Amino acid sequence: MDASAIRQQWFRDVIKSWATSVSLDSGKFKRVFTACVIDSDALHARPGGGQDHTKLRFADMQAVFTAMSRIRRTTDDELASRSWRQHSFGCFLEIVDFGRKTDMLPGMPGSFDPDKTMVLPPEETTEDAAGRAVPEPVIAQLDAHLALMGAAFSYGEMARADIELMMQTAYLVLRDTGRRPIEVASLSLKCLETRGDENTLVWDNVKKRRYGRKLPITRETATVIRNWQARRRQTEVPSRSRKQLFPSITDRSGFAHMDTSSLANALREWVAAIPVLLSDELDVQGRRMPFDRTLIFPYAFRHAYAQRHADAGVPVDVLRELMDHRSIVTTMSYYQVSLKRKREAITTLRKHTVDRSGRPAPFTSPTDYEAQSVAVPFGNCREPSNVKAGGKACAIRFQCAGCGFYRPDPSYLPAIEEHVNDLRADRETARAMDADDFVVRNLGDQITAFTNVADTMRERLSSLPRDEREEIKEASAVLRKVRATRDHKLLPLTVIRKETPDAS
Ligand code: SF4
């Protein structure tokens, strides 16, 4: 270790003396020394270079703290962890304190001291950061081997067929609801509420202690849960697990419900038993490469759930509620699209834009797409005053399917389909209200026009080669994500509001 890297003699002397008085292993010493070099550089940049310890002031201490708070890792240039940075600053203070106590720093002013503001703010939790989602094509391969889940897994005295159904249910709930593994493992036996066609999962946000949360789920997921509930009621389980959907292994287990490690182990065994799992990446010969199985773990299905919704263009505030995130910043990470990817997506989709009759009406360039149109709920709009107003000044109340300025592309297909369903529901309501014929007729005309646009786009897509269809699908997901974070009219999506006061 080259002590000359420390630029101030007084600092070098104190460090040497301090290092002999404490027991440090070589790894720890290296970390402390690195921190000291950064401190030394920060002082060196101050007037006088920090050479005379009697002239150091509060501003010098601030300079050291600032340098510490900006330390980056040499490996990837990312900001070092908060604990590392805070610890490094602590080492500097410890060394200075040692110098004072041992009279090695006579005359060092009392103003060269930290104040209570010199504490780094807590880091945002990155647990839910995007990027670790199991890709959808891999999930499809897992689903194709669902029968193997739990097939070789032991679970106390439970019968083989029951273990299989229980673990398969747990996986499907993880996949379809995006709850954390502990939230799935600890579901109550009565976690399902059904009202008419609507199914709701009642779950506890164990991490944030927000209990009795409600999440809308599909009929298929509800059926999966119901099937296991029926079997579970006939299955002998430890007495303390009577109220749990997924019981513990024995009465002596740590929890009344299934341990998350059991879920993780069952998942790992299942994934290992699947003969082939391929990623979408190609090797040099153009063959799909094997998927890294270590990337499949229970929490990764929560990421997949969030990414699936972001890719579908679910508005960010809706996804935030679905994920029960406290901060929208966490949810936003699933919507990150680089400018380059956005530009590529527009380059792809601008060629597949149609007019209100479904006839091709491509934009001449990506710039034309971005500058001459604005995204409205069911497509792009080319009406100049509306473009200027950012899509908020439609003179005919967004009856786009009947408008000459309407230019949808395939990324709007889900929104159009959703809108047609809403219009149908509105028409039924209008009829039930004995509304005048012109109201019902208008709704009917809109349904016909939007259906025509969607059908024509779908037909055209189906006639394209598979590669091109895939490219359009990916580009559509990118643009939907971009739009979902903007402030435009939200598409109707059902989120069940919290009934209990939010602790946040
Ligand atoms: S109705 Fe016409 S002007 Fe209004 S938003 Fe739709 S496309 Fe634009």
From TrEMBL:
It comes from Streptomyces zhihengii. Keywords: DNA recombination, Plasmid. Pfam families: Phage_integrase. InterPro entries: DNA_brk_join_enz, Integrase-like_cat_sf, Integrase_catalytic. It comes from the Bacteria. The keyword Kinase does not apply. Residues 135-347 form the Tyr recombinase domain. This is Site-specific integrase.
